[in-house]
Amino acid sequence: MSESISIDDFKKVEIKIGEIISAERIEGSDKLLKLKVNFGTEERQVLSGIAAYFADPAELVGKRVAFATNLAPRMMMGLESQAMILASGGGDEPLALLTSAAAPGSAIR
Question: What is the pTM of this model?
């Protein structure tokens, strides 16, 4: 079991619904996809190591998925990732994105 955190620590994580408006492979990487995501009032670029789970990245377009949006930006393969997609599984398990019918920008509380 992981180390416990306080509710105050958890409240620091901003989780919002984003609608994926484009998805493409990153040249030179077998793992990363570059996503353009609409968060209602803004668009962000998100890099995610989920390429192995999607033969055609275009199948992600239109999906509304939960993202952690207040992480510090991170550089990968010379590109900046401005959020982190939330999913379960991976590795030997099927990957399941945390999807929602809520509007882009909706906060998860």
Answer: 0.93
| Strand ranges in the chain using DSSP code E only, listed in sequence order | 15-25, 33-38, 43-48, 64-68, 74-76, 79-81, 84-85, 87-90, 93-97, 107-108
What CATH number is given for 7-104 in this structure? 2.40.50.140
Are the C-beta atoms of residues 38 and 104 closer than 8 Å to each other?
yes
| The predicted structure's pLDDT at residue 2 | 86
Mind giving me the DSSP string for 47-63? EES-GGG-SSGGGGTT-
- Give yes or no for a contact between 78 and 46, defined as CB atoms under 8 angstroms apart: no
pLDDT at 1 > cutoff 80: no
Q: pLDDT for 85-107, tens place per residue?
A: 999 998 889 999 999 999 999 99
DSSP state of 8: H
> How many angstroms separate the CA atoms of 93 and 5, rounded?
26
